Amino acid sequence: MGTELTMAGETLHINKGNLQPHLWVDLHADYLYAYALRRLNDDELARDLVQETFLSALEKTSSFKGNSTERTWLTAIIKYKVIDVYRKKNRLMSRNAADVKEQDMEFFDPDLNNWKKEHWPAPFGIEEQDPLHHKEFNIILQKCMAKLPPLWLSVFTMKHLDETVTVTICKELKITSANFWVIIHRAKVNLRSCMQKNWI
Amino acid sequence: MKKELKTDLEKIAYNCRQATYLIEKKQGEELSDREKLELKIHLAGCYICRVYEQQSLLISDMVRNLLKTDPTIEIKLDDDYKRTLKKTLADKINNQR
Known about the structure:
By secondary structure, chain A is mostly helical. Helix content of chain A is 66%, strand content 0%. Mean pLDDT of chain A is 81; it is low at 1-16.
């Protein structure tokens, strides 16, 4: 009896010691919000996910093993919720949207398959100015990403998100791997063109 | 009259659609030997697709950067929302006791 009590006490101590729910909002809310916002581009949805993450975390505090930090644990929860949003969005899409055809791309000549002259990629002209960290250039990228159709954006984001593997994305979003590359290709060609239009 | 492409080599040299597709695929998985050769031949003669490739790699890096939560870019929840959130959490914690 005495031993059991101690053990229960210890378990309680470990859990409560590592998790501090009353501090979550101050410590992690901004981080989780930024995490969700970058992946969803939807302010209201990102806020909701932060709240949902905290609430479901409270329900499963016992699953926190203390192997990771509190933040890593919460991030894993919100990551799963983000993927779930992608999945739901995809379910709402018609079958046609996933069935993209290479032939439809306006950028290339339908017979010769070369670039149409009006769509020729031209140098951005900021290659010398560390474009990777160029603030305005990054803002244009975000605006252009927001213009992509939801499924393309989901596929594209997931591909660049924590190096998620292709098979997982295809499984989660229910697309074939052939379609996966067609979508990535189309998304990238559109995105690049949008950036050229808005930058140069 | 429209140009007609006769040889395979000519078709590869013109096919920017396929070349840009391979440029994307290459960033995620290993291309087959045939695909590698096709892309090499195409890029050797196509300046525009070489520009595309360079920009495509840059955009991939930028997107990856953007998704990594970068602490130097300030994204913050407003205080009102945080207050509400704190209350919601506190209520839930109290109800669990």
